[in-house]
Amino acid sequence: MGGATCAFGFSGEHKDGRLNVVLTPERTAQYQAAVEFAAHQLRHFLADPPAELPLFTRNGKWWHASEVWTQWCDGFWGGQFWILHRFTNDPWWRDQAVHHCRRIEHRKHDRAVHDLGFLFWPTWKRWYDAEGGETVRRVVIEAGRTLALRYREKGRYLHSFLAEDSLFIDILMNAGIIFYAAEQTGDQTMWSKALEHAFTTRRCLVRGDGSTAHEGIFDPDTGAFLRQSTQQGWRSDSCWARGLAWALYGYGTVYRFTRDLRFLATAEIIASYYMEHTPAHGIPPNDWDEPSPALPHESSAGAIAACGLLDLSELTIDGRKADRYKRYAMTILDTLTGPEFLAAATPGWEGIMKHGIYHSLKGLGVDESTAWGDYFLLEALERVLCHETVG
Asked: How far apart are CA 316 and CA 318, in angstroms?
């Protein structure tokens, strides 16, 4: 990948803000090889793409017919192409990214899902950050406005796609696009909706030890919180790993917008739970509370957590914590770009990162590559190799 705009050739000790982070030649080469492999896999994907953008592989193949639950991952494909354009400055990747932005533009008005941040932040927001343009900015704002329409005044939360009484932990990862739209337009009502959602999620789904619930159920008439629940975890009182990773990254984003130290503290207690309950290699199981899980790893949760920890390392006011977050994130990346998780040594495998899980209870995307896992792996590598905060 000639002409890289990120510092692939770096070795030695690099001053990253207030941290001294060691990027050895060996580590840098491993991360660069992972990006080059990702580019190879994505070129192969684009040579014969499925009619509908897939969420996960089946037996390592993107082409398959399977239930998807909701079509929430289309933005992660364009996002990967934007990242590769940034790494390479190759206009071909820009063309692919712009094409995949335009194919989802109509969904800025999609009120059927709670995932508009997942759709438009990796695509149109990256496009705007890279090149500007009022038309591009307006698409991001419109998506944020549409997502804000999910707000329930009784209960003070953005409801999930399932029902108006349902709050999902991953909606927090999407709320950033509402904060952004409100900030850009000066819409205080929209800002307040995102803020109240963050507080409600914190109160109802984040536990005192830093673990998280997947779902909260509310009384639709009064808005009273009734109970914690789950759709993808082991049980309602357990801790589903990807949900916790969404919360870790999401509360860092909320703090970045609001500068309310309560959200920083929430992100940090969630980060502590992740680091204290995960094996030394940094990759959690699908649910930390599930006894003797059939599969020991959920790699997409690890990739999301790596991004969240890298973000938190720049946000925290404690330098020792910042160093711990950065180093733990790089431990995760060392593992995910190693031979067990990177698919480079698996002939015929079409994804980038193996051992992800979409929906274990439904048997969807179990021990496979996932669109979001591959995206967040690339985002984490971008953060490290480009030496700057993304977003």
From this structure: 5
